[in-house]
Fold:
Amino acid sequence: MTAPILSARGLVQTFANRKAGEWRRHLVHAVDGVDIEVREGETLAIVGESGSGKSSLARLLLSLSKPVRGTISYRGQALDGLTKAEHRAYRAEVQAVFQNPAASLNPRMRVESILTHVIRRHRLAEGNGVRELIAGELHAVGLTPAGEFMQRFPHQLSGGQQQRVAIARAMIRKPRLIIADEPLSSLDISIQTQILDLMRELKRKTKVGFLLISHDLNAVRSIADRVVVMYRGRIVEAGKDVLTRPLHPYTRALLDARLIPDPKLARSRRRIILESDAASTSPPSGGCRFRDRCPFAIAVCETQDPELKRVCADESLVACHRVERRMGFELAQPVRPEALSRDRGVRIGSH
Ligand SMILES: Nc1ncnc2c1ncn2[C@@H]1O[C@H](COP(=O)(O)OP(=O)(O)OP(=O)(O)O)[C@@H](O)[C@H]1O
Ligand code: SF4
Ligand SMILES: [Mg+2]
Structure:
């Protein structure tokens, strides 16, 4: 197993939010006790409904915001304790790509100036070397002829080309990890496939790893080495087979929410269907945070928050009281008929 480039322990991030029509603020635990490791060269995907805390976690790992509690380590060293040189290395090795490339590129600068700015700021090249470096990076992300793309302004590029420039800007510092928050969601389907192909190619050629946040489970399935599932600020499942052998009821529900040409899942008789998103409901206090939507909840789920623990011989981690060794929920039966009610946001259906 490769060493982690980034790891976090006990991360907590909160926001004081106000609901529409209410004057009082309430505390949202966007990230609520997350332990995570991102290993060198791997593609780790984070999935979960809107509001589950994926972007908040990404911002913490990028040091774009400070956690309320917990530590983040870069190559085994806590970020707070890094020397200046180590901190520079962290900033270079861990890069970001965001959802909306148009917003992340300065509209008044040509592509050449956008990339020159990064090169000069970090003294990556001088003289003719600057143009050579830019040409090489544009070529690497498929923007050829590079000389022509250098002269364009962001608005003269398609969405896919803008995202390629954003990726080139991240790649110019020779990162070991790119944290990409929904990099595909603003693009057409055919362009999404091209960007995924580009990510695969960059990984093959440069061994860069990705932490990919995406709503698109098919995209995640096609590229991720490991998958982490977040629900209301917590990791509820993690592992290599999460999308082919889901063990947590929430992961099952996420998979059941979209159609995939997967004969194994198509054979599954029971489907869990989520009917409201996590962000629209307040989490139950105490116990498992999925219990208000879970058809498998039993008494212990009301009182004890399940720990994320290893359940199989492989690396799968699941936070559920009812997961048993090597047993998926394909076999489990719902025990609470009332949990099937529509207003609890979940029902069981059949194919
Ligand atoms: N800057 C902020 N100020 C206030 N609340 C925030 C802020 N950022 C996130 N939140 C809240 O934290 C929770 C998690 O949000 P986050 O954006 O991390 O979720 P997400 O999983 O990335 O969702 P999406 O898939 O919609 O991008 C939500 O309830 C959100 O409203
Ligand atoms: S711990 Fe209980 S409520 Fe939570 S997911 Fe497992 S069965 Fe459902
Ligand atoms: Mg987000």
